[in-house]
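User:
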Amino acid sequence: MGNDESRDLFFLSPQRLEAITDGIFAVGMTLLVLGIDVPALPRGVSGAELAEALWKLGLPLFKYLVSFLLLGSFWVTNIGQIRYVRRVDATFLWLGMGSLLLVALLPFSTSLVGDFPDRTPAELFFHANIFGICAFHALQWVHATKGHRLVDPGLAWEIVDGAKRQNLLAPAFAVIGMAISPLEIFESNFIYIAIPFLAALRRRMP
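Assistant: Predicted structure:
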């Protein structure tokens, strides 16, 4: 009985984790834009020259969009799953910290693929970053729902299994990205643009 009481000391309210999660996602999504450099042009530049410089920012801007949508999708998924969690233990907490560690790294990964387009090591680093975020998040859900450890005992297994399947979506894209990066067919990180739409479609399915 003493051991059970000792373990109970590690249970926390999920609201504590939600607060830091929201904060880190907000900071990460904000820092993404800092990877886009303002064109180094003189003040007397012509409109045509400015337009050309902005056109050249098209690729970094699109990569910013991809990363922003990814973080937004991860945040929405996190909100959808944390509502079922009734308490948080040390393992769930540290798995969450692992995911947030890599969320905070994503602005760097985005800048890396922006500064070194079509370079396989940069793209592999980006895909590994995405895979790591999703892996930690998926492990959180598995840990929370195993034997209904941290969720309501009456939580339907359809919800548990549905969330598990959704958690496999982004990691699958990350693995595909790692596989096609060495082929240098196109910017492999662009494949992620489909994830928010596929996730929304998945939520509408029975």
